[in-house]
Amino acid sequence: MIKCLKEFALKVLQDGYIVAFGRAIRVQKITEYINSSIYQNLLNNLYLLVGILFLVSLSCSSTVNMIPSNSPIPQVNSLLLLPGQQSIPDNIRSVQFFNSSQANSPLVRAQLKSNDRLILRFDELSETNGMFRIHFSHRNSDWTKSNLPVTWFIGSTNEQIVQGGIKNQSNGIPFHTYDIQFLLQDLDFLVSGFYFIHVSDYTTGIELFSLPFALTEQRGTLELNGKTLYNKKYLGIAVDRIFAEFSFPEFVEMPVFDLNFDVIQDGFLRNATRATGKDFSEEKVAKFYLEESQSYLANSRFYKLNLYSISLSNQEILEYQESNGLPQITLKEDFLSFSDSPFILQSMFGNPSWSITARYAFVNFRFNPLGDGLNSDDLFVIGDFNQWSETKQHKMKWNPELRLFEATILLKEGSYRYTYATRNGTQLDIVELGSSLTKENQWYTGILIYRDPNLQYDRILFIGRVQLQQ
Hints:
Layout: H1 2-15, E1 17-20, E2 23-26, H2 40-54, E3 92-99, E4 109-111, E5 117-124, E6 132-139, H3 150-153, E7 160-162, E8 166-167, E9 176-183, H4 184-187, E10 193-201, E11 207-216, E12 221-229, E13 239-247, H5 255-258, E14 259-265, E15 273-274, E16 277-279, E17 285-289, E18 296-297, E19 301-306, E20 317-321, E21 328-331, E22 334-335, E23 341-342, E24 351-352, E25 360-368, E26 379-383, E27 397-399, E28 404-412, E29 414-424, E30 427-429, E31 442-451, E32 458-468
Parallel strand pairs: 4-11, 21-25, 22-25
Antiparallel strand pairs: 1-2, 3-5, 5-9, 6-7, 6-10, 8-9, 10-11, 12-13, 13-17, 13-18, 14-15, 14-31, 16-17, 19-23, 19-29, 20-21, 24-29, 25-28, 26-29, 27-28, 29-30, 31-32
């Protein structure tokens, strides 16, 4: 072990850098100063220090290895992140992932064997240009990894190397922007279903983040509708039930066993509900519906933030100050029960600006509960900018002088949706601070899933969408 650590430390000194957790960390070249025996003790101590710092992340071998692929992914309290999904790290910002023909779809989806184009964009906060590896994995409907071998779900090479980011021209924080486009015809996906796109650091192979999408066959015919029930939940909040009628194709021989129907409200894929109501009495037709106990609350509202103009001319900005090229912004207060608005159909990643001169800024969010007693340890600002997830950076702190909660986060110019959430056990609750008790116009996505009886994987036969209006 000591010999291995010495070899690794010597390589670090000779190369002038080490790579850990996807970042290059510069180390001053000092090997030329350590040539005589008088410095042997110093060198031994350096070997030990390097070993302690990096033993937890790097394997001792002739090359730098990645963390084993079966390492458990930490679970994050989130309205969006799925089981097995790697959350976006702090040095990656302003991620967008969408189908070019459906840029505002909350669920990233495309049709199998179509001319659709998937687009992935993100910023890396770094002065140097980076390199990344991209690959895909096929998932079951519960987002566990399917048993299909790689060559059974993708016909092309399941790895792409990405480099050549564009350096931002603003005077603020240094970063590079990456714009990667995938033609489905070039990727040659062979089967429908749920997928992850995985982005890893090129040098270490360590996965940085993953994002979900769906490939559908659009076979058969799906009709969606819904019904709103009033005064069914606490405080008389309305709820929505979704109904589906699917005329299935000829190859479906045992629909009772092989067909299922999932419902997603707005874009929150993590909270998908599998319909337990089923009716197969009509020939070649499967009917599904959410039981009343499965109904979705129909009062979701969110705050909107327009940061396309970072100046005092922006009516959403209360205070503005330049600081070493990085603006410091204070937003006007959000008031409980007054400031939010109904859900708008758009990407769950927001709309960050992709101008080559777009800037980042420290943005101070302020929430006024109007005297409502809240536990400051359990309040977070969540939204398009953090995968609707609970993180330390987005935890609100109580300001006793102003009598409101505050959190300051780094954001790029653009537009975003967000809300305030409390922690309820291990779950995030956006209902407690929601302002509306009345019915809102919610969007629902219906996914018809077929369990292939031969290959034992989940196919997506059809995806549809419906809005239940007031």
